């Protein structure tokens, strides 16, 4: 069974930094892309950043220049370095992956989420 396990969330003051990690495990044949989404209270889930197996990266305009996504293919792990955090970055951050599972084939998977709270 495929699992995505996030870590690294927490409480930080505005202007501070956090680093999120997400490790994929299970009967994974290949990972197409991994990424991060977030959902603030009362708002829809939105894309933060994604990275493909080939290294192509996409960022939301709101985080460009502040957040950096990276990936360790060998460890099946994706990271999100978040700098210059703002109170509006406060949200539940979800790891996502589109991957090929040995039994289920290609599908989308989500982590449980990790809370990021930025105080002003």
List the helices and strands and how they pair.
Blueprint: E1 3-7, E2 10-13, E3 18-25, E4 28-39, E5 46-52, E6 57-59, E7 67-72, E8 77-82, E9 91-101, E10 105-110, E11 114-119
Parallel strand pairs: 2-11
Antiparallel strand pairs: 1-3, 3-8, 4-5, 4-9, 5-6, 7-8, 9-10, 9-11
Essential attributes:
120 residues; 7-stranded mixed β-sheet; 4-stranded antiparallel β-sheet; 0% helix
Shape: elongated
Order of helices and strands: EEEEEEEEEEE
- Largest β-sheet summary: 7 strands, mixed
The helix content is under 10%
- Report the β-strand fraction as a percent range: over 45%
| Class inferred from helices and paired strands | mainly beta
Oligomeric description of these chains: single chain
How much is the average pLDDT?
96
Amino-to-carboxy terminus distance: 40 Å
What is the count of β-strands?
11
Q: Uncertain spans, ≥5 residues at pLDDT below 50?
A: none
Give a quick rundown of the structure.
The protein is mostly beta strands and 120 residues long. It is built from no helices and 11 strands. The radius of gyration is 14 Å and the shape is elongated.
Structural commentary:
With 120 residues, the chain is mainly beta. It contains no helices and eleven strands. The model has no long low-confidence stretch (mean pLDDT 96).
């Amino acid at each position: 069974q495929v699992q995505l396990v996030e870590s690294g969330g927490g409480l930080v003051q505005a202007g501070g930094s956090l680093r999120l990690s997400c490790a994929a495990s299970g009967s994974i044949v290949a990972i197409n892309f991994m990424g991060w989404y977030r959902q603030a209270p009362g708002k829809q889930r939105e894309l933060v950043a994604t990275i493909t197996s080939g290294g192509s990266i996409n960022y939301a305009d709101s985080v460009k220049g502040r957040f950096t996504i990276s990936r360790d293919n060998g460890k099946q792990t994706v990271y999100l370095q978040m700098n210059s955090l703002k109170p509006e970055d406060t949200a539940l951050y979800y790891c996502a992956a589109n991957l090929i599972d040995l039994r289920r084939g290609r599908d989308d998977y989500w982590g449980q989420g990790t809370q990021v709270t930025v105080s002003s």
